[in-house]
Amino acid sequence: MQNYETVWANCLKIIKENLGPENDQVFKTWFVPIVPIQLENNILTIRVPSQFFYEWLEEHFIDLLKRTIRLQLGPNGMLKYSILMDTSIADTPITTNIPSTGRQATMNRAKDIPLVINTDDNNREIPNPFIYPGLQKLKINSQLNGNYTLENFVEGNCNRLARAAGFAVAENPGRTSFNPLLLHGGVGLGKTHLAHAIGIKTKELHPDKTVLYVTSEQFLQQYVDAVRNKNTNDFVHFYELIDFLILDDIQFWASKGTHTQEAFFHIFNYLHQRTSQIIITSDKAPANLGSLEPRLLSRLKWGLSADLGTPDAETRIAILKQKLANDGIEMPEDVIEYIAYNINTNVRELEGALVSLIAQSSLNHKQITIDLAKQMIDKFVKSTSREITIDYIQKIVCDYFKLPIESIQSTTRKREIVQARQLTMYFAKKMTKSSLAIIGLQCGNKDHATVLHACKTVANLNETDKQFHYWVDELERKIKE
Fold this sequence. Notes:
Blueprint lengths: L3 H16 L4 H7 L4 E6 L2 E6 L2 H10 L1 H12 L4 E7 L9 E4 L6 E4 L4 E7 L41 H12 L9 E4 L6 H15 L5 E5 H13 L3 H9 L3 E5 L10 H15 L3 E6 L11 H7 L3 E4 L5 H15 L5 H10 L4 H17 L6 H11 L9 H12 L4 H4 L5 H17 L4 H7 L5 H17 L1 H15 L1
Parallel strand pairs: 2-3, 7-10, 7-11, 8-9, 9-10
Antiparallel strand pairs: 1-2, 3-6, 4-5
């Protein structure tokens, strides 16, 4: 008579042959961890690490398992799963109906929970027997920063899609097509702020939801500790209870090996199947995360990938004003604009420049002026190059000729305004990457032919008119300074 170890060893050989060498990793992931523990009355009992592991086998490999068991134990052979549950959660018994026999099995959570798969096709469905009374109300620290809210997240063209998708997710977590929601963008562009804000809004709208924010570094350390302490089941089961998981900076795993990614892959699948919401942030788009495991990378592409770009000048001004309003500080408009036009890399550096200016003013007992702002910019952000935009050029030209910016947008044909408009178009073509159509649109809704004519006019006057040549030199110096 065969023993259970021999039967399962033979089963593994058949399964490996059926999967083929191209699926060697699949075999190692889903079949090598299985442990045979008993063979009685033509029923082979195998132990699997978790509920999710059982559900994945039942969903993806049920036919292969049934064929294999029949080959080894005959047409009446049966397979029984014994699922090792978390011994630290509770001692409450779980009663499981076993469809193939009609019997009941009652065992403690700290022990194995048996399930039988009947090889008879007429009796294949198995109800989900796992009920965790009270665990969905688990009280955990969400690790959300209360200062990062949607209300103080400044919206602009650079982040409008991401913010709108985030609000939709908060209203209906797990039930939109934005699952997972991947927020990606460079350093300091607001990914973490927005991720926290979505989590906070979700808790406001759905107090019953268990929301958790965790950095990829924290997740990695937790997993390493779980492996070291031999309680990876506890680790996996904990994350399986989360209704709304936010994982920050997934690119951190790029050079950290595959085991953590594999653990998250299984957790991801389980949460996604039970319509739990997942938000992931990264400093790169999915197409540039090739160093992650391919199957995990494919999961990131299931939902919506929303880019957070570099804020334009208007958005940067709004961010500075929001920051000042939150701190109850007043600052001259020209100083705010000067900082916004000179710091164009990211929000973090923009706010850092503002803090530096306020510190300079308070510590040295100096009034906040444009001159102090210039000193601060030169001293603290020398490496930052100004972003020259059409808006910035308009402001410099209008300030130089003491004209309101609105005049360039008007249809008036007054000579001084026409000249200012033409100079703006000339410098916009020379110093920005904007198309003629965009330049015309922002300079009074003119067409590209008008922009070309303006550029030729300025070029001609620059060569023939000394006064005009002086204006061009002065304006170019001011725009570049």
